[in-house]
């Protein structure tokens, strides 16, 4: 899969990917609006070109309050995200080239007020999806928000209800979940528990790719 070319679909206003982006951005705006005053931290796993967070912060009234770290493996996407952050004047946004599955990438910035796990849950096994969601209790501060996505189509089992259940079993409160009639699932959950320690050197998931997962079903 060419994950750089994959982002081209964001340019089409009628594409499901573009429509999902709008919904994700709305959840980010809501999370920022409900966050306490002062400095905020955010992390984005498998951030791609950063359209979701950078697109919101570019003109958001709290843009200067946010210190964010976007982690992405594809160097071309990293370059695009860095260029977008620079063009928007977002000095607090750091784009890191590397494996987003490793806990080491987030040391110093978690537990965070906002955790984005968009575009991951449909590209990992169900067991790894639960493992990543368990790690959100280490990535997210008390009262912080996790915004997540999971495709409802592409030959994959609709895991959205189970994602909600896994999060809620771990102390997250459901804030918002998209209509099940849509091709994509988007959710926002607020953490009500105490953050657990983030152990270094831990792999939170193995990114398989939805094409490989679909081929195995």
From TrEMBL:
GO terms for molecular function: methyltransferase activity. This is Methyltransferase domain-containing protein. One of its GO terms (biological process) is methylation. Gene3D superfamilies: Vaccinia Virus protein VP39 (3.40.50.150). Keywords: Methyltransferase, Transferase. It comes from the Bacteria. Residues 45-144 form the Methyltransferase domain.
């Amino acid at each position: 899969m060419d994950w750089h070319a994959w982002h081209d679909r964001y340019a089409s206003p009628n594409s499901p990917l573009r429509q999902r982006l709008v919904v994700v951005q709305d959840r980010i705006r809501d999370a920022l609006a409900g966050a306490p005053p002062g400095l905020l931290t955010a992390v984005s796993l498998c951030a791609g070109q950063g359209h979701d967070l950078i697109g919101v912060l570019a003109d958001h009234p709290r843009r200067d309050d946010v210190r964010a770290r976007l982690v992405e493996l594809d160097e071309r996407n990293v370059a695009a995200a860095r260029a977008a952050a620079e063009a928007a004047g977002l000095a607090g946004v750091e784009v890191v080239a590397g494996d987003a599955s490793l806990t080491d990438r987030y040391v110093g910035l978690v537990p965070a007020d906002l955790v984005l796990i968009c575009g991951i849950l449909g590209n990992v096994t169900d067991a790894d999806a639960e493992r990543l969601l368990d790690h959100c209790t280490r990535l997210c501060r008390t009262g912080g928000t996790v915004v997540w996505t999971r495709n409802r189509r592409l030959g994959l089992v609709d895991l959205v209800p189970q994602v909600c259940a896994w999060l809620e079993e771990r102390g997250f409160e459901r804030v918002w979940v998209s209509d099940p009639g849509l091709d994509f699932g988007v959710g926002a959950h607020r953490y009500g528990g105490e953050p657990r320690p983030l152990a270094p050197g831990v792999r939170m998931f193995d990114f398989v790719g939805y094409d490989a997962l679909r081929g195995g079903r």
